[in-house]
UniProtKB/TrEMBL annotation:
InterPro entries: FAD-bind_Monooxygenase_sf, FAD/NAD-bd_sf, Flavin_mOase-like. One of its GO terms (molecular function) is NADP binding. This is NAD(P)/FAD-dependent oxidoreductase. It holds the Pfam family FMO-like. It comes from Sediminihaliea albiluteola. The keyword Ribosomal protein does not apply. Keywords: FAD, Flavoprotein, Membrane, Oxidoreductase, Transmembrane, Transmembrane helix. PANTHER family: FAD_NAD(P)-BINDING DOMAIN-CONTAINING PROTEIN-RELATED, L-ORNITHINE N(5)-MONOOXYGENASE-RELATED.
Amino acid sequence: MTDTTTERDLRVVVLGAGMAGILAGINLMKQGYRNIAIYEKADRVGGTWRENTYPGLTCDVPSHHYTYSFERNPDWTRHLPPGAEIQQYFERTAAKYAVNEIIQFKQEATAAKFKDGRWYLDFDSGHSDIADVLIAATGVLHKPSYPKIEGADSFTGDIFHSARWDHSVALEGKRIGIIGNGSTGVQIVSALAGKVAKLKHFQRTAQWIMPVENGYFSEQERAAFQDPAALEEAMQTELYKASVEQYTQAITDQESEGAKQLAEACLNNLEQSVKDPELRERLRPDHTPLCKRLIFSPDYYQAIQHPNSELLTDGIERIEPQGIRTRDGQLHELDVIVFATGFHADCFMRPMTITGRNGADLEDFWQDHPKAYLAISMPDFPNLFMLNGPCGPIGNFSLIDIAEHQWHYIEQLLARLRSGDCREIAPSHEVMNSYESKRVAAAKETVWFKGGCVSWYLDKNGIPASWPWNFSHFVELMSEPDWQAFGLEAPAQNRAQVAAELT
Ligand code: NAP
């Protein structure tokens, strides 16, 4: 039993009230931490699901697997969760677990400095705080990437990024141009096809598209899901876990059965869904499936074949006052242009400045690319832990599940600080370097590196900045910290348990 009388009253500060920040807040409260705060730059929780509101916004993870493990949602209306329902789910969950009470909204952290064993924080409002532990739950894809296309300022219609959707612009009867065909662009085209006067989709690189069902749950099904046991059964968790494992195996081993099955499904989808052979060839990617993040879509091929839709593959020459001119010299007159051109994937906590032990600057540490030991912690930045940090697992699976595994790991580190076992936790440079060189070597074996494409998974040196091993390996590593990596002995109760098992 833990002796709570000698526990340190740690001040724990969480940055960000998106999916991961809410998770951290709930778990900290469950574990009896009282001196906690979550700072959020916006005026509501939700992170990416608050910021993205484009038509067709959907998560490609099966609905019932896109929830916290302790707060299932029987009320999803569809097999894949619509963005608005996800946002409601997070708002509801934050309220239910009283996380809202510890969130300070409209506070964007601008600087964090480690001094005398504590983190000194500054916010854009002028507010400041001092924390023993800093949890960065600032998200991955939050800084929109605007393409450098000549003439964008000259366009006389409406023009905006998919993550900054302008809902004051009516779309009905308009000619809309969508630039980009990642998950976002594909979902927008699917949602708007047939509902606007003309839809022009500007594709630079063809994408593999995985067919997926996205029907509505019937009233009876939703009523049945109110029973947690029935919901648990319907979730087929083992099947879901096996599919995630198969997916990560396919990334690390292109000869695996899973890789072949996924490739075949994508190829069949293209061959069977697109009737016009000329259009089919323009939609045919020249890279290995999974090299870019796979697009899951039930209806994109149907949407692009709608009489009012058009796929443009000649490349964009420039934007003009009336529309987009492609390299073949044609001007495509438009009323609205949407940049579905993705995000700067290397920001994480930045642009805030982070100064660690002995003046260590995060910008220097991340000069080459953002990195962290097991995606969670960094040398010289003690007691700073990240959820969904750099080079963690990313793919067509639930990031909530990833964050829960990471939290399980982080809470064990926090317990050591809380018990007074140690004052600072960070891996050594040797541990970090050895880990990172193994990660980079493994990353060069993945389909992201070998598959013949460019994607946001790659860092500026062209190395995949992602978890390059199987999902099961991630789960195993998250089960308990390798205490030696942090210069610590295993906690006393773990040592006693090991000794008991050996006798
Ligand atoms: P993205 O995957 O990075 O795609 C950006 C698109 O914009 C690509 O098609 C890219 O073409 C194109 N592009 C960029 N600059 C361009 C330029 N100058 N000219 C022409 N085309 C240009 O971005 P995203 O679609 O927003 O998706 C980002 C990530 O968000 C996803 O991978 C996923 O992790 C997440 N997401 C998830 C879901 C979901 O269902 N769970 C939904 C939406 C987003 P190239 O391919 O040629 O570079």
